[in-house]
Amino acid sequence: MYSVSSPSETSRPFLTWQRILDWAQEHYRYRTFSKDEKIPARAGLLYLVQRGAVRLVGEAQVSASVSSGSSRLPRINSEEAFLGFVGAGQPFEIVAQSPFTLQSFAHVDQTAVIWLYWHDLDNWPHFRREVLDAFRYQHQRKLLWLSTLGQRRTIDRLLGFLTLLIEEFGEPCDEGYGLPWSLTHAQIGSAIGSTRVTVTRLMGKLRQRGLIRTYGDNLLCLPAEAVANK
Predict the structure, then answer these.
(1) CA distance linking residue 94 with residue 86, whole number of Å
(2) For the ranges 47-51, 93-97, 222-226, which has the lowest average pLDDT?
(3) 10 Å Cβ neighbour count for 41?
(4) In whole angstroms, how far apart are CA 198 and each of 17, 59, 158, 192, 194?
(5) Among residues 75, 35, 38, which one has the least CA distance to residue 57?
(6) What is d(CA 229, CA 211) in angstroms, rounded to the nearest whole number?
(7) Contact call for residues 186 and 198 (beta carbons, < 8 A)
(8) What's domain 150-230's architecture?
(9) Topology agreement, domain 1-124 and domain 150-230
(10) 110-147: pLDDT as tens digits
(11) What pLDDT, on the 0 to 100 scale, is given for residue 62?
(12) Beta strands in 53-198 (DSSP E)
């Protein structure tokens, strides 16, 4: 299931990518973001990651109550969950449906994003087809993600989640095949429905079993033998 893309395939996955980039710069539809900077995206627009990586985060408004003397007062809490990455050359949309909102952040420094209206794609029919194909692929990956999150044991959800991420975005490294970006244990916990403390403990178990490793600046990877079995 693992494959190694050439630099040209990674940086220019669309046939008309350079034309789109030139058009976006000419029409001021291109912007570069710093690490962890919020991307001011809104529903109804199409976004393309030209460079770097975008982190998608879901936020839900959850009703709660707090005690105040003899009564309990309603309070709205926000819960965030890491929903995945969008890598270079990939599209994404922002969907808002109460009580859920979707937000996007630059996950690495110098992340560059292009935005268009859907009708802008009428100028590039082949490009439109590639965008739709990319969304179909993302949908298939999300189904795998949901299947992984259905595992009863947290350690199985954790390993499945990391495997899916590295399969999709990983790059060859000395230790095997690794994720090129860092992820905090809190972000991982929010993605699999667990806590930072539990993720830290289970990551230790996975390392002891040789199922995951770290390399470079504490980046995650699957060992070479695991890659060979895929």
Answers:
(1) 12
(2) 222-226
(3) 20
(4) 42, 22, 10, 11, 7
(5) 38
(6) 12
(7) no
(8) Orthogonal Bundle (1.10)
(9) no
(10) 999 999 999 999 988 888 998 999 999 999 999 998 89
(11) 56
(12) 53-68, 71-87, 91-92, 100-106, 111-117, 171-173, 176-178
pLDDT of residue 10: 41
| Pairing, β 30-33 against β 111-117 | antiparallel
Distance between CA 21 and CA 48 in Å, rounded? 10
| Lookup: tokens for 125 | 């029919």
State yes or no: pLDDT of 171 exceeds 80. Answer: yes
pLDDT of residue 95: 80
Q: Output the CA torsion sign for 178, 179, 183, 189.
A: negative
Q: What 3-state DSSP class applies to 32?
A: strand
Any idea which fold 1-124 has? Jelly Rolls (2.60.120)
Q: Domain map of the chain by residue range?
A: 1-124, 150-230
CA distances from 75 to 71, 72, 99 (A): 13, 9, 14
pTM greater than 0.85 (yes/no): no
Pairwise pLDDT comparison (70 vs 187), residue with the higher score: 187
Helix (H) or strand (E) holding 213: strand 213-215
Say if residue 153 is exposed, middle or buried (CB neighbours under 10 Å; 0-12, 13-18, 19+): exposed
- 172 cis-preceded (ω within 30 degrees of 0): no
